Predict the structure.
Amino acid sequence: SSNTNEEEISALSGVESNDMNQASSKTLDDGVLDLGISADFPPYEYHEDEKIVGIDPEIAEAIGEKLGYEIALHDMDFSAIIASIESGKLDGGISGFTVTEERAQQVNFTDTYANSVQEVLVKKGSVIKQIEDLEGKKIGTQLGSTGDLLAGDDFGSENVQSFAKFPDAVLSLQNGKIDAIIIDQQAAEKFADANDDLEILETKYADEEYAMAITKDNEELFKEVNDVIKDLKESGEIQDIIDKYIKTE
Ligand code: GLN
């Protein structure tokens, strides 16, 4: 159809304009794109020895390459990233950020680059078999995450224990201090794979989409980064990165 043709043409011109961007990028004077990341969220971001690796760091590197910026990843608690972007300490963040209306008041979100869903991680043999069974149970979450907000809204914040870092929530689950963790699908799968005593409930919770967060103080930077994300999506590069970390069934 003519529609397809138009898409093909715009895909081609997208590549060209990108090449021009590369030579003329001066939005960031120091040439460094400072991004917040909470490297406790495999396969999106985690530590391999001292290095921060995963889907998001690779996407960030690809963006840096296209724009001629050095990428500086600042590892911090997830709950601190948006505030640090708002206060001007960071240019943005890439940390499996679900797009929400509330956050969109605080940062500019790029086009989305991945889908996710909230899932429930429990100990094998748990009495918790479905979402309703979470009623009155101790639920672990990551502070400031969408799962944290969901759990508080649906089951009462008095029943929610929020952790700064997911591995601490996993330990508490294994020690019986909490009964379940509400966590994004891919991370749930990685933690379940790495820990024989854990499993994921069949029932899925809320559908979500990830995007990169950019400061509202620099519209030019936002446009630049967003254009690159669009190109990386269109060219399939983002999907290739995701596929490297997530085995499809
Ligand atoms: N996607 C969830 C959120 O945005 C959790 C992300 C994370 O913990 N890194 O709140």
